[in-house]
# Entry
Amino acid sequence: MRRDVRNLNHVFEPDSIAVIGGSPATGKLGHVVLKNIMDASFQGKVYPVNPKYREVLGLRCYPDVHSIPGKVDLAVFAIPAEHIPSVMEQCGRKGVKGAIVLSAGFGEIGRKDLDEKLSKAVKKYGIAMIGPNCLGALDPSKRLDTLFFPFYKLGRPRIGEISFATQSGAVGSCIVDMAAHFGVGFAKFASYGNALTIDDADLVEYFGSDPRTRQIILYLEGTKDGRKLFEVMKKVGKKKPVIVLKAGKTAGASQAAMSHTGNIAGNYTAYQAAFRQSRVIEANSLAELFHVVNAFSQPLPKGRRVAVLTDGGGLGVLSADAIEAEGLQLAQLSSETEKVIREVLPQYGKVGNPIDLIADSGPEEYRKALDALLADPNVDSIIVIVLFQAPALDSSILDIVISASDQRKKPIFAVAVGGDYTAESRKVWDRYGIPSYDSPDFAVRALKKFTEYSLLSQKKK
Amino acid sequence: MRRDVRNLNHVFEPDSIAVIGGSPATGKLGHVVLKNIMDASFQGKVYPVNPKYREVLGLRCYPDVHSIPGKVDLAVFAIPAEHIPSVMEQCGRKGVKGAIVLSAGFGEIGRKDLDEKLSKAVKKYGIAMIGPNCLGALDPSKRLDTLFFPFYKLGRPRIGEISFATQSGAVGSCIVDMAAHFGVGFAKFASYGNALTIDDADLVEYFGSDPRTRQIILYLEGTKDGRKLFEVMKKVGKKKPVIVLKAGKTAGASQAAMSHTGNIAGNYTAYQAAFRQSRVIEANSLAELFHVVNAFSQPLPKGRRVAVLTDGGGLGVLSADAIEAEGLQLAQLSSETEKVIREVLPQYGKVGNPIDLIADSGPEEYRKALDALLADPNVDSIIVIVLFQAPALDSSILDIVISASDQRKKPIFAVAVGGDYTAESRKVWDRYGIPSYDSPDFAVRALKKFTEYSLLSQKKK
# Structure
């Protein structure tokens, strides 16, 4: 097999893109993907390919790839499955080295014959191919966007340091959309679908050596080559945090996964063992995946001792419950911290952890308490709970938490639960790399995974 | 003790309200609460009481309650704790029968002396008092709103059928705000704080006999009279679903709860036993409380067999995992349903559960599949997953799910994960009583609690 078939630079760093099936008909896949490539302001050349049209979306349209005058680096396929192998052949002859096949209708519906033909074509010409049956790829720093979901329905993340490989386009789109919503940045994204050539392990390995990627996410139902994936995870897991959401754990779900991408989800306990051995962090749900991913913008904690700072007593109690349930510890505050808190809250004699600032507290009380906790040698991480609804707080509390986080001394996780005002306020933190959560237990569970990863990394160093 | 001290009609159905400490100074508690009472368009008389002013917010202000010319039903206290017992005495002499004491500074900070004085006053005159150290009360149908959090920060729910008693004002405000955000309606709300007179059990009992309340929520750290609460829960639990979030389960959290409202959180296992015996549903987190509450707008399921309908394969697999993990069952679809699905998806041979409509499906495919599932005798409940990001769907999918839900045949839970477009779309469902969730496992866990409640109710009938 030619080495080129695994060279993902051909997919992520093209200078020119051909959209096979590019179309002016708004309902068509080939329309949406072409429009999105243009709307993302891709800086290179874009060539719609469709024998039915001479112009599409203001661009000259070509009857086939051979008619395109210049070089084509990446071909994006948005035509029916049965035509794809022969057009891939043409692309090969044209010298195309990267391909993304969005179309479904291959092995996942029993058309193993089409799989074989397509596979033969890409191997013959050394084409790195993502798909088929996938959502495409994204690289915000290159303005590369082959996702076929419209911009107004699916937000696009800003440039960042997270790279994400997903077997499910749907799950991929949900996470990408959430990231955009909360202002969380992405380095690269690929939905690899049926993984006919490029698979989970290839993407994880590529992200592992990508200098802009500092954190890797993988959504996985089942892999074709468990050994290969395990070896890659072990290698990459030493360098960068890898967070996996494994679906298809149970018999019924595994059945569903089978019909979905044609891959067997396999024995979950074997996966779990592999994750553990390769320092991969496992998320237990879609929500938790996002919760854990966000945590990594903070510095790693040195231990399990958590301080909780709150202006809502009940939210502190709920956090304390979660901290003990998850095997973290409520920090014993130093006498220095206790002194500061007593100065902040002269009326209230008892200083405990959670520190309950009560609802009358303003931003200044938070600032003093946060400074004390950052300096406290007994505290490894801080959960700061803000009841934005309280009249005593104004939006300067956002800046105070951001300033504390900017010191990069200890991880700070924020919790704020509520409606419109609270949700909009929280987004500011997320944009500044402070993970925020809308239920105390979400913050605690993410902090637990983050802490475990940190302690494991310290041990293995 | 005079019977009146537990008559909550005095609090929830006043014709006139005096705001003790009503003030023109925007930072003051007495300003915010007076403004909110007026902004909520309370239909009765409102009297600010404050010797410093002659007029507040355009209303005549009185130096004391005796100077008020007319009858006063409810007094809302927003003055320092130490003055409250004597003013409560004056209220008693004036004939006030309901009181809400927002101010903190009583037993929870060791001022048992103030507790005793206040208690003596309300008992002497038969005043039903909520608080002290609480957030106040809400009845959207009466336009009663004594919450001291500003409207722009804390949304107010529409008129509905859920009543909510909370020991923590912070937790109460979070849930109220979320309900407003998602368009979930409330009948009554009370934050009872230190529960000096009116306690958890009194509120649950009152909500139990309130004709507009169909569902009751309780946030509880610890109760003063476990036996009383247990008896009330047993009685009310037979008539209406009662959902409890118990905080202070662990040693550290229990300590935090103690300093927060001055109540001991107590032995969690005893609470659990009481909840089980009284058919009370326990939520495990703040998020889950809201998730479970929403479920009850749907008809009760007859059994554990769940059908999952999705246009995103991966989201179906994740749901299937959660269904098996939570002890629900993936329904075996009837041959009639399979036939319909095969007609809807001619290309795709295998019909399983989850039903994967794939991303090309439009609203019409959903409609046909939903109709088949509503008629299928093998299906007890339906989880419908919508990838709003998919180009093939337009917003008519909202109406199709609403129409299916309006048939009231089986519970329908919706799942949609994403950013702005998805979040706004989901809200439409919540407003129409279709519980919607932003992670498949959230839907499944809520459905599990809902199903268990249903099966228990069937057995006990």
